[in-house]
Write a structure and sequence with these properties.
By secondary structure, the chain is mainly α. Helices cover 61% and strands 3% of the residues. It has helices at 3-16, 26-38, 45-66, 76-83, 86-104, 114-124, 128-137, 148-158; strands at 111-113, 145-147. The protein has a two-stranded antiparallel sheet with strand order 1-2.
Length: 178
């Protein structure tokens, strides 16, 4: 497992720990899901529902895979053991990646515009300069759009334990100068 992967999931863990108590709980995922769907009020209701369901699947996977004492709390160490283990997390990750990218595809044409991407990623809690660095790393077209498929692949790569030098690394630390 690469240190870059651990750094990436540390960022997400801290963002998902919405109440800041150092552990993940069901309420954190409910709050995050609500923030994310509110970030795109023009999204289709089906896309919003899919995103809320994907956050639920993400949480339920963590509970099923990690919460041996059934206290409904997941530490960073437990989180890392699951989300960086493809056998344990790939199904939930695929659902999450597809749902988030799909939520951003407001026109239903397979593309996500920079403003919508930024709104969703800001709702999750990523710093704005890092969001734009990531969007640029995804290679936007002349209309300043990326494909939903590229974004979904980028999300999957983000949780890969063996990848480094990926676009998602732009979300960790200070953005590199352009």
């Amino acid at each position: 497992m690469r240190s870059e992967a651990i750094d990436r999931v540390r960022v997400v863990f801290d963002l998902f720990d919405v109440n800041g108590n150092g552990i993940l709980e069901s309420d954190d995922f409910d709050l995050m899901a609500d923030r994310v769907v509110q970030a795109v009020p023009d999204a289709e209701e089906d896309a919003k529902a899919a995103m809320v369901a994907a956050f639920g699947t993400y949480w339920e996977t963590l509970l099923r895979e990690l919460d041996e004492n059934r206290d409904g709390r997941i530490s960073f160490e437990e989180y890392t053991a699951c989300v960086l283990n493809p056998e344990r997390f790939d199904d939930a990750l695929d659902d999450f990646a597809t749902s988030l990218a799909g939520l951003g595809d407001l026109a239903g044409d397979g593309y996500v515009t920079r403003p919508v991407f930024a709104a969703l990623m800001t709702a999750i809690g990523f710093p704005v300069p890092n969001i734009h660095a990531l969007f640029d790393a995804f290679g936007p077209d002349e209309d300043d759009r990326i494909t939903a498929a590229v974004w979904a692949t980028g999300i999957r790569d983000y949780y890969s334990p063996d990848k480094a030098g990926i676009a998602g690394d732009k979300l960790v630390g200070e953005p590199a100068a352009s």
